[in-house]
Design a protein that fits this description.
disordered N terminus, mainly alpha
Length: 497
């Protein structure tokens, strides 16, 4: 009985590609194809329930347009938005989209009951992505359609590439180091990703609320500070620059940031470079664009939106939290090239470095969160530090943002204060990531702009001009100290000035 119990525990521990990589004692370089097929088949049998749930979701989508009247109680988008298709066409397309998607899911799900069917699983995953996007593309005229399609879309993505692991990854995964060579911590550990996952979910909730207003599912958006200004921002010409709801697009992006936080093993910096790259693109450049658009709203639109600001504040810490993982991945790719490995193969299938087998003994297990949440939270912030100088420049940036209200600068002077202050806050927070500490020098350039603006532009009060000159000087002074660097980042250490 005891032996059976131990075997059962081992089976449970080895479920999923991540578990195989962590627990399997064989060297994957020398593992035979027959052994890999055996592992793949065993893993497929252990996760068989996943594929039956996929099939049931297929039936759910087929029955949705047959059960619910997609043409009843139709809603028009708010803000005089004119969708690119008339409402009858949109309803028809959404019906057929759900019906065809459901049939494809059933067929592909049935085929997935047999092991070694990665094409079917990836196709189902892309159907899930389509279902997440269709309500936005066709301006779903019913909240039921939006909720149904986006929820099923998320479930399909989770059931195909998250819960059972990447399709057929057992075929090509390789054992190797869990900690990047030369690093003092693992930037892909579950503890490191936990905060990104939480922030991604928070961003999804906030953006979906704003999208519900733009799509017409709710009559008004609540704003505790700026009253009707949120409506004016969400209905502005700037907001209408996309052919879909910009808040809905934000919810779509946050959906993937939330889900991609779960993807891969704690060694994904080397096992899934393509995924780390895509996640980095979503978080870093697109995140910066999102933040800059929100920053510019008071200048371009002339109004503030509380939940728009909240969405930007959620995105801001995600940037320094993700940069370290991207750097570790790029370093791994460069070292792989030096060893003569194919960059194309390594990028898509991952790999390992010769003689690199360092275990991650430092990161706490995510399962310990209930017992010791503080330990997991502290581990989620490895790679970040918070020197007093950056807190001061953040505070000075906030002061600049409110200077027009407190001191009276107006028009172009107020715009300079607002934009410069918001950018200083942004660069200060990003520089709290130790890998991005050198970025704090961008604040020195902004300090020079703040000092020079009263001499170049009008609409400064005397007090406002003196204020900006003093604040600009202080920003430059407090930009100079680097602050403590607690972690090691291999060759990136020399980039941190």
């Amino acid at each position: 009985m005891k032996q059976d119990s131990n075997k059962s525990k081992m089976d449970m521990a080895e479920r999923g590609v991540t578990r195989h990589e962590m627990k399997n004692n064989h060297d994957n370089h020398s593992m035979s194809e027959e052994h890999r097929i055996m592992m793949l088949t065993r893993h497929h049998h252990q996760t068989q329930w996943v594929y039956w749930v996929i099939i049931l979701l297929g039936f759910w989508m087929v029955l949705s347009p047959l059960t619910f009247d997609y043409g009843r109680g139709l809603i028009a988008p708010t803000g005089n938005r004119i969708p690119w298709l008339d409402i009858t066409t949109r309803v028809t397309l959404l019906k057929w989209s759900d019906l065809i998607s459901g049939l494809l899911i059933i067929i592909l799900g049935l085929r997935s009951l047999k092991p070694n069917r990665p094409v079917e699983l990836w196709t189902i995953c892309f159907i899930g992505i389509w279902l997440s996007a269709a309500p936005l593309l066709f301006w779903a005229p019913s909240s039921m359609i939006y909720l149904n399609e986006t929820f099923v879309g998320m479930m399909l993505i989770a059931l195909t590439i998250l819960i059972p692991g990447m399709p057929n990854m057992i075929h090509y995964m390789e054992m190797g180091s869990e900690v990047p060579p030369g690093w003092s911590y693992n930037p892909s550990s579950w503890a490191q990703r936990s905060l990104l996952i939480a922030l991604g979910f928070a961003g999804l909730v906030v953006s979906r609320y704003l999208a519900a207003f733009q799509l017409g599912y709710i009559d008004k958006v609540w704003d505790p500070f700026f009253g009707d200004s949120s409506r004016l921002v969400l209905h502005s010409n700037m907001s209408k620059s996309l052919f879909i709801s910009d808040a809905g697009f934000g919810a779509f992006a946050y959906t993937f940031e939330f889900l991609m936080g779960w993807m891969g093993s704690p060694s994904r910096w080397r096992t899934m470079p393509w995924m780390v790259t895509l996640f980095g693109i979503l978080v870093i450049p697109l995140g910066l664009v999102h933040i800059f658009l929100v920053i510019s709203q008071p200048v371009v639109v002339g109004h503030w939106c509380t939940f728009c600001i909240v969405a930007a504040l959620i995105m801001l810490p995600m940037i320094p939290l993700e940069v370290d993982e991207v750097i570790a991945m790029v370093q791994f790719m460069r070292k792989s090239k030096k060893e003569g490995q194919s960059l194309w193969k390594v990028f898509w299938k991952g790999g390992t470095l010769q003689g690199s087998k360092e275990k991650d003994e430092r990161s706490p297990q995510l399962e310990k969160f209930y017992e010791n949440p503080r330990e997991v939270y502290q581990a989620s912030l490895w790679g970040m530090s918070f020197p007093l100088s950056l807190w001061i420049t953040t505070s000075l940036g906030l002061w600049l943002m409110f200077t027009p209200f407190l001191i009276g600068n107006s028009q172009i002077a107020a715009d300079v204060d607002h934009l410069a202050g918001a950018l200083i806050v942004t660069f200060s927070v990003i520089a709290m990531g130790e890998t991005m500490r050198t970025g704090r020098f961008l604040n020195a350039l902004l300090g020079i702009v703040v000092i020079g603006s009263p001499f170049l532009f009008d609409h400064y009060t005397t007090l406002g001009a003196i204020n900006d000159i003093i604040i600009g000087i202080l920003i430059i002074i407090f930009t100079i100290p680097r602050g403590p660097i607690k972690e090691n980042f291999d060759t990136w250490n020399k980039m941190i000035k």
